[in-house]
Write a structure and sequence with these properties.
This protein is mostly helical and about 300 residues long. The chain has one domain: ABC transporter involved in vitamin B12 uptake, BtuC (Orthogonal Bundle), CATH 1.10.3470. Helix content is about 75%, strand content about 0%. Strands 1-2 form a two-stranded antiparallel sheet.
Length: about 300
Amino acid sequence: MNLQFVADGLVAGSMIALGATGVTLTYSILRFSNFAHGEFVSWGAYLTMTVAGWIGTCVPRLAEPLEPLSVGGGVVLALLLAMGLTGVLAWCLDVLLYARLRQRGTAIALVMASFGASMALRALLEVVYTTKPAYYSTELQIAVPLGHGIRLTPDQLALLAATFVLVALLNVFLTRTSTGRAMRAVSESPDLARVVGIDVSRVVRITWYLGGGLACAAGVLLGLVVQIRPGMGFDLLLPLFAAAILGGIGSVPGALAGGLIVGLSEAAAVQVVGAQWRAAVAFVVLVAVLIARPSGLSGRAS
């Protein structure tokens, strides 16, 4: 039996899971759906490409591919730097827009503002980088046979490994550190967190850093196996929210599970009903979860 669609679903689900983790963190602590999160995915991908170009110019040997990957050490180093830059971008958007609305507006005002921010960030991206697709590398890769008809490239295998490592590190951070415990306390009740001396503004700032950084990682991994373009994050937005809700808002392992389920569902849909219906799968999953189990797999009410 050919199980290639399962492998394809896991690859797609890994990218969705990383972005969904940022969505679930933002929603659980700030209590609103940030529809500009998809643009952080796009900005992270482009920032990584720009920083990698600078690094390759300054240190040419870092531009050489790291066998068996298609990219060099410059892209890996650029990813780490761009994750920080994307986190700063997310925090700046909060300072300039969301923080003011949290003090004076309502939840619906925040959601509508995030729509506007999304369009503005995407338009700015098109002005700076144009709409022409870009690539981290033009190196051709040969897929490695893994048995049962499954074949994956080294880049795809690295994507899967990177996703599980990042989610595991984040889960350890949230459960084993004082800052992580403070974030969990704020997600439960910001007012009670203030009473016990937790700096809520610091928690909010760290949340934006983490959410932006994870969105950047998702964008780079997506660009590594597909291509980089301004609308890539927007196209990923519905699967991100479907995965976050399916996994249960506030649950990092749940976001990982939700992302993998959405990715596998999309891949299965391609096999059963055709690729033209792939985009509808995330919507179907989202509606089904909201009807059958609004609290998601984690069982935690959102």
